[in-house]
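Pilot study result, target chain (154 residues):
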Amino acid sequence: MRPERFREFAESALAAAPGVAEVQRWDGRPLGLAVTLTSGSRVWIGITGVLNPGAKHRDADVPVAGEAPTPVAWPQLYDDQQATTPELVTGYLAAAIVNSGNHEIREACAYGAASRHPGFGAAFHNEARAFCLITHTARAGQNLGPEYRLQSRF
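Predicted structure:
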């Protein structure tokens, strides 16, 4: 799955998650999404990817299906004060990709807490990958802040 098609898929998969109120395309990146949580907090995600080995951009994007990832329990999205963090959000959004039941996806996971830029990624059965980095965060009612200067709680 190429990044362009992944964005289309992720737009609907993330919107289907119970903790997500809305997902919109965001033009702050060539392939971006703005995700509004049910709390009103928002994250902006930039999507990139790599093609499967040997593929060229001029080649057709041929879907390769396999076994979809096993659905997981929805992870915690908010702390005890009803705020979220980049780590909680990325785990939750990665679970939305896993729980979508998409047969092109081999696995999806959040990047670890030690990651310089919080985000999540997906690996596909054709060996291509998508990378989703959180570039901005905002509390309910706020606009996006400086790029990559994420709020620790929002």
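One observation from the pilot: Strands lie at 20-26, 32-37, 42-50, 105-110, 119-124, 129-138. A full batch analysis is planned for the follow-on phase.
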